[in-house]
Amino acid sequence: MTTLLTNAWVLTLDDAMTQHERGWVHIEGDTIVALGSGAPPDIPGAEAVDCDGDIVMPGMVNTHCHMGMSVFRGLGEDVDDRLYRYILPLERKFVTAAMVRAGSALSALEMIQGGVTTVADMYYFETEVGRVAAEAGLRAIVGQTLADFDPPDHKDFDQGFARVEELVDAFAGHPLVTPSIAPHAPYSTGLKVMERVAQWSADHPDVPVQMHLAESTLEVNWARDTHGKSTVAVTRDAGLLKPNLICAHCLQLDDADITMMSEHQVCAVTNPRSNGKAGRGIAPVEKLRNAGIPVGIGSDGAMSGNTLDLFSQFAPVSMFAKLLGGSRKPLPAVEVVRMATIEGARALSLNLKTGSLESGKQADLTRVSLAAERLHPIYDPYSMLVFAALPSDVTDTMVAGRWLMRDRQVLTLDRKKTLRDALQIARTFKAEMIRIDEEKS
Ligand SMILES: [Zn+2]
């Protein structure tokens, strides 16, 4: 299969930030073989796509998500004890492989529609998430969560590790789906289990490790009260602060924590909508990046941040940095787009495969229509993407040379069935919430 995209405003996101204003991209199979500007090459038999001057850019990398949780979207908004009042009881009662499958399919649909081509996920029954991602055609890191709060798919950590092993076996050598192990957070696994994960990880160096780190004052207080040090230091002492560890949130950090994270070459994810909505704080994104730590952008689960595209994260990522710095200058739009693409890929150790449009890389890309008046005039395409574009401006999404969406039509999932399945689960949740409210009143 050969595809030739022509008449495109190609943002490559390569090291030189090369743009081709009247550009073309030549794709053979799953790989970009050439790209440039000016007259496109003549390739007999290629599927030629005239992009009408639209932006063609790398597919976006959502570096932290809980795909199964999209069925919780908007549930119990503004209720401060929502996690303990609704979410954990609902998860214990209703989270099954089938529910995770339905939620993950809804999430996959939304991400493809929003131009996301790679996602790092962590949740329960994660083998199902991997299956959904594979069917949807998304590139994914799927992490089996381990936690001590009676989660729905393991009663103890031995069972949790068995789930990890099952996941690793299911996706060994898969071209798109990478299995991963995901200790939930330091306070919800504890030092002993983190040490066990570190040992397991040393025996399985190709399996990425993901965790929530320094997300809340609750976690910071736990680390101080239980271990007399910061949560980052506890993670280091467990042997888990190792190169390429994917750390989500990274909010409650002091300078010593950031130095420690940099010395151990970990990677970070910022989740601004989720953190902002929970009133948790602002991640020190510039400090992390200045310390040489790659920082990706993550949606978190739809329960926390509501949307899974990255366009809706862009303004908060940028504005939080500007508010923190008290100036217009911090985190320019171009840096935000880098974080959403090549730097996010680096944070997941997938930067040799995806995150930029370069010959030899996988053809993971998205087309952003410039039809909307709201986007014009365009002095700077990165500013346009960060502050004016919406996920609905995305018309086409491709992963590994395969179109997942053309002209807003998702080709790999049944939209009606996906929505119907998710809404059926939401009805069950609503009934249970009414019961909980009655019981507590
Ligand atoms: Zn999370």
TrEMBL record:
This is Amidohydrolase. Belongs to the metallo-dependent hydrolases superfamily. ATZ/TRZ family. GO terms for molecular function: hydrolase activity, acting on carbon-nitrogen (but not peptide) bonds. The lineage of its organism: Bacteria, Pseudomonadati, Pseudomonadota, Alphaproteobacteria, Hyphomicrobiales. It comes from the Bacteria. Transmembrane segments: none annotated. The keyword Cell membrane does not apply. Residues 55-403 form the Amidohydrolase-related domain.
